[in-house]
Batch of 3 targets.
Target 1
Amino acid sequence: MNRFTRFLTGAALAATVLGGSHASATELTFYYPIAVGGPITKIVDGYAAEFTKAHPDITVKPVYTGSYQDSIVKAMTAAKAGNAPDVAILLSTDMFTLIDNELIEPYDAIATSDADKAWIKAFYPAFMENSQAGGHTWGIPFQRSTIVQYWNKDAFKAAGLDPEKPPKSWDEMVDFGKKLTKRDGSGAVTQWGLEIPSSGFPYWLFQALTTQNGAILANQDGTKVAYTDPKVIEAAQFFADLSGKYQVMPKGIIDWGTTPKDFFEGKTAMMWTTTGNLTNVRTNAKFAFGVAAMPAKARGGSPTGGGNIYIFKNDDKAKLKAALEFARFLSAPERAADWGIATGYVATRPDAWDTDAMKKYTAEFPAAAVARDQLKDAVAELSTHDNQRVTKALNDALQAILTGAKQAKPALDDAQAEATRILTTYQH
């Protein structure tokens, strides 16, 4: 029995789950990754209330668990203490960790009707790459994203650039960046051409560069990485050269959280960040801005990102059935459209884009469709077994490269050695 199939609850349980009736007042604990109250918690609370109204015998209790990193720790700690959430939104890249710890239910064990099978097939294939493994579906895409480039049209105009044309290649990005970088009389930079964040999860932004350079960082099974591929080393050198050689980007580590603020304040004319920041930018930018797919080198493209809906293991069959109902509710076309409009995340299934609400939104705000259109060039976000340690090795290498502590090749050689050591256990 392999490591994927041993987690299945079996056909008997599946039949019982789907054939049984809800227990009276089944309560679901729903972990959602956000640190503070505000618009997002109001939306999630609203969805929970709407679901309970439609399913009076099920109560959903949202629990706000902080950052994605905090949320996976809290979910695993609770599960090991016998108090797992029933449903949780966690990173798509947490999939292997959740499988290896035997914490989640594969959807195909409980979603066995023809309608269920059609539902699982309803999502964009690019998002399912981080949702399926070993022949099973472990997560359902919910708040998913790609990286896109944002640019300040007013800054482009002031620099003599066409405000309607973002850079379409690395060479153009450097050329535009030089024209957009402004210095005062003393030589201090008052406006950078570009900011690509490198704190928090630098590997994700870096993966856009490796994708564009034609490299894939990990295999589909999450057991091997290719950190020393010459195309990866070249991408890392280019990342460093944007600040060192070309001087179009600040030196050192650029903070993920403050990059949008720098954009709003005119401290950078272009930035790379998640499409999940789209509503934030639309609300706070006091200038005309554009949103575009990633610039290309060998190819275009971006890794996908964001969170999936996971159902945690449970001996209570009524809870498993209720959790499946809630997952279907959250990911229905009209909800996927509503969530995308409210947050900027990519509506995760094609039929969500055919809803009247989404058609109206994209007609008024065409930038909302950029990330969707980029999905054809998207790749799976870096995800492996023991993912946090394997990605930390790459993050540490990138930090060393960007701060000048190490050259690109030796830093990535070290990261590869560490990742290979960690992953040896999973190579059967």
Target 2
Amino acid sequence: MIKRKMISMLAACLLSAAAIAPAFAEGGAAPSAKPAGAQEVLERLYTHISEDAKAEAPSLKPAAVRLTPEQGKKLLSAMAERAVKEHPDRFEAYVFRGAMYYTNGEKEKCFADLDHAVTLAPKNPLAYGSRAEFSARDGRDKEALQDWDKALSLNPTDEVKDKVYMQRGLFHMSRKQYEAAASDFKNDLKYVNPKLRFGVQIFTGDCYAKLGKNGEAEKSYREAVKDNPKNPLCWDMLGHFYNFTMKQHDKAKECYDKALALAPKSDMILREAGVNELGAKRMDRAVTYFTRAIEANPTHRLSYMLRGTTYGVMGKYEPAAEDYTKYIELTKKPKAEDYILRGGCYSKLGLYDKAIQDYTKASGLEPENYRPYESLGYNCSLKKDYDRAIPWYEKAIALNPKSGEAYNNLGYTWFLKGNKDKALEYLNKAIEVSPAYAESYRSRAEVYESMGEFDKALADMDHFVTLSPKDAKGREFRNRLAEKAGHA
């Protein structure tokens, strides 16, 4: 999520309103294929409306209008129709109207206008570039690539080459064609505005990182920092590379701290710096970064989720539950996983009824997910309400017959109810479906111990200790069984 947001920010920098699709204006800049807000577009296009139109509608001056998105779309559509009517010989007019058709979902009309624009200007690379942009957006990949190739073959200006290589590079990147994307971005470096080189270097680094060419990726990210050392995003992206790709958390921290020195209130960078500390298992530092992110932007829910997760790893379940609660409050449509996470905290705090409420909500949101039912059974067991627990475990097993944990918990619940035969039936099944799940061996050892079968119990605990060598209580239990088996 964090990376996608940063990429979209870069794309916004590099593909501004002056993109490949030309505006309806002489030598004018081009609106992006995805129209900006009505106010921004009006500011861009107002000077290109005929004098008559200005006289007829002086209130349309940018400083005066405050339109809803729907009103803006209607106005822009009307302007596009007028552009074609007043200048039927201008390909830019048809590109403008085609863009509005696409925005309104009228794709056939859009491409009819774009085709006509090419007919009007068969030697203008902008006409082909405009059609390529919309073809790519519509999934017409072959047509888009043909038009970009055609645009480049017409000896365009450096500015147009910049737009074509950038758009085609982003196209390849979105299709996970990273070799082709890196090639386009490297070509774009010859033509891009020097002030925007850093963005192209970052995209190039992303492609190399995806290809596993980490040396080249690091070089590209470093070039971005060199080109624009005062841009916090450059440092952030280099930190992202060290954090997620290289797992070099100390280097990542240096980059994040430099980014934050430039943008101390950036909750996005603060969150990513916290994730880096979490990956390095420096939990207190992670909490500090996430707390700063919340202070910088108290309404961004992800910061609460990340801090809650960190508190959970630290065993601080009360503040973790509070953060999960805030996350849920800020989420329009909470998911089952959100309630499962908070329910786990409540369970650890001994608040079993609250945990059961959360797991019940989770099961309602995802009725085919076995995990809420398994947790419902577990929390009912902790309340010693075994008769309620058993059906929940059975429901979990019906949804996931390979859950060794569910079979183990069901078997142990039968043991607690005093039915050792049922207990062994389910514990044997637990070990069958999940032989690496250590807890089933300890559970079965307890049953065997209660039956006086110490050798069997000891064999199970030997297996448990092999699977969980750091479990001190397990070793103690195993040693007690060894003594009992020796005295039997």
Target 3
Amino acid sequence: MQQDPAVTQLAAIVGDKYAIADPAEMAPYLVEWRGLYRGKARCVVRPGSTAEVSAVLALANAQGWPIVPQGGNTGLVGAQVPHETGDEIVLSLNRMDRVREVDPQSDTLVAEAGVTLLRAQQAAEAADRLFPLSLASEGTCTIGGNLGSNAGGTAVLAYGNARDLVLGLEVVLADGRIWNGLGKLRKDNTGYDLKNLFVGSEGTLGVITAAVLKLFPRPRQMVTALCGLTDPAAALDLLGRAKAMAGNAVTTFELIPRLGIEMSVNHMGCRDPLQGAHPWYVLVELSSPRDEGLEEAMEALLGAAMEAGGVEDAVIATSLDQRNALWKLRETLSEAQGFEGGSIKHDIALPIARIPRFIEETNAALEQAMPGCRPLPFGHLGDGNLHYNVTQPVGMDKAAYLGRWDEINRVVHGLTARYGGSISAEHGIGRLKRKLLAEVKDPVALEMMRAIKATLDPKGVLNPGKVL
């Protein structure tokens, strides 16, 4: 059987070993990890340098071959997998995995796109610094993917999302030109902030090959607590109290309903942390570069909150094992939902002050639309990002439930819009929300986005059919 000429030409750039056309070898690159999208590809190409990425894109642009950039393949909206047509080329960046430089004096780290988030964290820690982006998939997800999707995570409250953690980028444009924007400057007013075009663009405007990341002082002390509360309004009150009493030391503030605790306990080997059951829980963590004072601050915070009402009980981790056990309740929550049947998931952002009322109204609307469904709103209350997932009614057929995905979406996203929120907080648009974006985005904003796309990728070869 004659080899595809595209594979032959790409192999001349990256080497025969890294231009993959064998179906079995390509398989892991073609499916989204939840199985929502299963695509086909002409081949998978794995360049090992920026120069090779440049040559691949120049060739693809000249030939009109569509390219799908991919990092750790942990995305949740289908942006990183090809369509079912079989004519696209997957550009995997996972061979580009060098930490080029760690500069403690300027508090920066230069990492290539294929460096995993965990390795970036470890490189920072080795220099007595912190890279604060934190995700459950940090052992697999990559810096390129994190920036391409503008990842969030559990520390956005204190440090911001991925966009806030990058100073400079190296990007290969659709025609193969290389933009060297790897600056370490905290202030640079020489024109447009080009890097923020590419952060969050999901590989549709250019391919990020390296980044200058911001580092921070490494915490000397972290104190973690889990609180049982009456309702989300009490959680919001606790958040305000925590900010007032601990300021920037509040680095995590995660909201979890009782249903989520039960799922993690029943399916993930977690232990119910408090003696009694409570309608809602908050995982709160304080961090400081100082090595003392946080335990007293946490005790004062929880004491004041319990005295004021709303917080019914709390436990403070007194060892690393206890801290890990509390975090496990939160980090295994998404996986635990799979054992309960179908789950229709939403990644939304809301004005923080409106979240309690939003949850109350949306839960009621969902019950009316589908009696017995089990809403599971959880996540980053501290920055207004909820993963508003809805688990199927007990005993309902899973396929029948998932067949009503659009109906449930309309309820959650309709109320999100009414409350001034966003349909995507940290997962991106990809394929999953592409049509929905056109319905909710300001028309002028969409026109500007299309104009930028047409300017940077006039032939439409970069991740076609994603975002726009």
